[in-house]
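**User:** Here is a favour to ask of a fellow structure person. Please take any protein you like and set down a full record of it. No explanation is needed for now; the record alone will do.

**Assistant:**
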Amino acid sequence: MEYQVNHSQCRSHASWWSRWGILLTAGSVLYVTSAVAQQDELPPPAPEEVNAEVGADVEVLTRGPLHESFATAFTKDAVEFPVIKQQPPEPIKETPPDYKPVGRNVMWIPGYWYYDDDQNDFLWISGYWRNVPPGRQWVPGYWAEVDGGYQWRPGMWARAGAEVGYLPPPPESREAGPSSPQPSPEHFYVPGYWVYEDGDYQWRPGFWARHQRGWVWVPARYNRVGNRVVFVDGYWDYRLAGRGQLFAPVRFRSSGNAGTRIAFTPRAIWSTGAPLLLHLFVNPRTGLYVYGDYYGDANGNRFRPWFRYAEQHRDPLLGYYQWTSNGQFVDNVQRWFDFFTRHPDYRPRATLAEQLDFIRSNRAVDYVDQMVTGNLLSRVVRSGTGQRFEQLANDVRDQIVGAVETTRQVLDQRLSVESNTAADGRVDSVLRLPQIPFLSEGTTVRGSGRVEGKARGRVTSPDLPEVRVPTEGLPVPTIDPDIEVPSGGLEIPQLPVEVPGLPF
């Protein structure tokens, strides 16, 4: 493949160190301009360095799906994942790296196999470090054997220590958007949903609620589990840049279906800063996010730009970024999308190796920062800038390993319960979740309205009588004091007027 870049319109305005040390881990104000330039430039890592860290048998991808526990797009109805004929490999033996982001509520979320339609094969979605949403616990997904092949049963952020019940499928969603105007720019729309009460479904209409700085509301949803569904109520989560450190998905070149014979430690990260906001797409059939160069599929039915999908479906994630950018987010990202659509040379590459090859030949390109989606964890740790990392002490590693083992036990329990539920058609089956002991409670975030209680309080808006609030109200999120919550400012890259090819 040849890359043709108009160097006459490009100039170097940042060092390689700042590109690989600051931009990719910046979490508060995300301007797509370069960080402060350094006098001594650090060249991109050679293939030998990459192979030494990630393994010569591992192909690091800079294009692919996000881990579903990091984020999934809002869908009004429960998603029925497609059935595939190919049997998934056994889960590999994955261990977390030696460095984790600083934070008391950070835990390791294990990876899983994902079926790649383009390659007609499985790739490994690496585990990653996650700031656990307050009061939540991850229940992993799995591949279920069904008539005609295998089907993915998605994971969920359930209430910690709660009981997960299995219900008959609800009617088709009645959600059609708000029935009243937005009370103010401070408000976002919470979509309506069905609630199972006294053996039947009752419709709970959508309503307007107030934004909370640094927090994004994840709407209630139903997950399909064969002929049953699981209800996951709405909750507060961190903004994308504060949710943790993603690791790149990988493909094992010669392992085939070796399964448990593979031992793997993720060492190549994915940016959760500005590039994620610019190169994020949605698979409308599944609600899964994909990251990277999907521009060629963006005008069809396979993938859609996330901000356009979210705008159509009233996803509060988009509402949050629109609010923090003073209403400029959609227009700004649309201009970047148009630019990348018309200029394929500036898009992210599909693999880390291809990305590095391009950078070595085009280190002076002005907008190369926007196409860099992957990096080596060791380089980010050594830079000492952006997101803070800490080496795992033995006691912390023991806690992490214990939490991962608890998560695996939850998956085993889920497999057992759902297997019995499918066999006898019972609706009274429940999955009882154990507590993850080391996760902290944090402190209470107080909204603009009256707050009752602490972690499970009620939020109302007595000063806005026209705002409809739900019967049970919104839960009050808690803040991990080690997580930096932005105090203000734009959270979307500013578009330089000199971007080549744009008519302004």
